[in-house]
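dumping this here so i dont lose it
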């Protein structure tokens, strides 16, 4: 008999014998529960512990800082400082004049004239963005004054923004329907027949 066939037959017979004998199975111990089941059962305990913990109140918020008192507007001081700025400009002391204008605006921030004079100085110094802020403020504070809008239009021309310049000119004509403008040698608008710059 072929030895390989013998081994195969022996193994098959042994397997059949084991099947018939049905060896007793080892007692099944309590298998550990899946992790998901354990976590579900553990949740109530954790929730109960969390619910039993005292609720901490939120930390107290700091009291708001007291408002810093601001000085009331002082138009007389602002007028004096503006006059100083004009005198300094005539002497060629531009930086000192700028300081005087800024002090005048602090003394009276709602003065259209202070914003307008300072805005024109800044425009002439080609600080156009800052000039636009002050000239716009002057026009908003004194919308019935055509010269404020002419100054603003000229700043927009220097910024090469003709659309906004045209809008400002339109507001000047609304404020003064008989207004006649002409361009000066710098290409800026001024009142026809006037020799002084607009806004003086």
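and the seq i came up w/
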């Amino acid at each position: 008999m072929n030895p390989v066939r013998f081994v195969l037959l022996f193994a098959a017979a042994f397997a059949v014998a084991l099947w018939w004998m049905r060896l007793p199975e080892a007692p099944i111990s309590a298998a550990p529960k899946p992790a998901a089941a354990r976590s579900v059962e553990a949740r109530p305990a954790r929730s109960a512990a969390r619910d039993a913990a005292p609720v901490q109140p939120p930390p107290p918020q700091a009291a708001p800082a007291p408002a810093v008192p601001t000085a009331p507007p002082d138009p007389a001081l602002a007028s004096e400082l503006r006059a100083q700025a004009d005198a300094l400009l005539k002497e060629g002391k531009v930086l000192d004049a700028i300081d005087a204008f800024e002090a005048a605006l602090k003394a009276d921030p709602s003065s259209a004239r202070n914003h307008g004079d300072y805005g024109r100085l800044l425009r002439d110094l080609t600080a156009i963005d800052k000039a636009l802020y002050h000239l716009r403020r002057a026009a908003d504070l004194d919308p019935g004054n055509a010269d404020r809008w002419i100054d603003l239009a000229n700043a927009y021309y220097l910024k090469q923004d003709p659309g906004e310049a045209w809008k400002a000119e339109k507001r000047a004509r609304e404020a003064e329907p008989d207004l006649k403008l002409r361009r000066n040698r710098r290409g800026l608008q001024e009142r026809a027949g006037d020799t002084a710059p607009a806004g003086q």
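Helices lie at 3-21, 35-52, 75-90, 94-107, 112-124, 128-141, 146-158, 162-175.
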